[in-house]
Amino acid sequence: MSGSSLIILTASLVGTILAPHPQWATLPVACMFTGTLIATFPASMLMKRIGRRAGFYVGLTIGGIGAIIVTTGITTGIIDGGFFYFCMGSLLIGVVNAFGQYYRFAASDVATSEYRSRAISWVLAGGIVAAFIGPGIAIWTWDMVATVPYAGSYSMLVGLYAISMLLLFFARFPKSSIEERSGTTRPLSKILRQPEFFVAVLGATVAYGSMNLIMVSTPVEMQGCGYLLPDSASVIMWHILAMFAPSFVTGHLIRHFGVTRIMVTGTLLLAVCVTINLNGSSLIHFTVALIALGLGWNFLFIGGTTLLADAYRPAEKAKTQGFNDLIIFSTVAMTAVTSGLMHHHFGWETINLAVIPAIVLAFVATLWLDRRRRRLMQHRTV
Fold it and tell me: What integer pLDDT is reported at residue 198 of this predicted model?
């Protein structure tokens, strides 16, 4: 998460230096999310075969190689194809992020059904540390190599992945049960038709897609408004903190109020973000809007991840989780590409208006499922 927050803050800024045209400034971020998209389903199936620990090691190794390539691209510069290397390295970093997404499912696997939402929340709460480490590294090391801005920042990614490998050595992962390895499974098409699966994936997709479309362009928009890197870093830091700090209580809130109500709250917070962005461009506007964006992402994404567990049997876990993340990161990759293009050609206001239909759809669908589940519960009680 620390590596991702560093990239989110700096990649579009490096892109403006290396890209052949400003409209491609966010392409490296898109490449990162494309790497996540490509690897997410294979990562799930690979870990089903070789286990969570070995799978995470594979992802971190690929990420370390990507960090080296990215640093090489920045050092090479625009004349010698540095932008191409930067994009390719970002693609490989996206692969490690694909594997890393399954930490939340690993937590869900070892938790009881009552504790599942809190387990997922506590894992994602690690993003609180990332909110400070990633932007902090960017600020402290962006000029470490005097003649090559940001080269020092990206070289630090290698160290982050090495630390992750060390910590992973001490983690304990249970072996897959017989039911998980050889239990009966339904066709994926039947799993997809369940209301819980549809709303879970829709909610998580809207959470990530809306957040990504707005967040990726925020540093570029702030730069255009005359703000400096520390200002953008502060906004992104508060945003990431808002994404993960509620995780300490989100699981408890889900248990108390119900997963669908928390997801509905998440859609409303995303709407608050859009409203603020459309009504000003001061530093406080950017900060509060991205705090609302982070909170909305937290409620909607953790809620969607929790709800997804109601849609599959143990033997269906790998393919259901993999397909879920495939859909999510297809949207994330698409929004990362379109964010830069939309910002360059149509502006900041259009980006914010574009997410409104998706937010409304997620709100209506989640509210429908909430009422449906309550009617079913009342019927069973009767």
Answer: 92
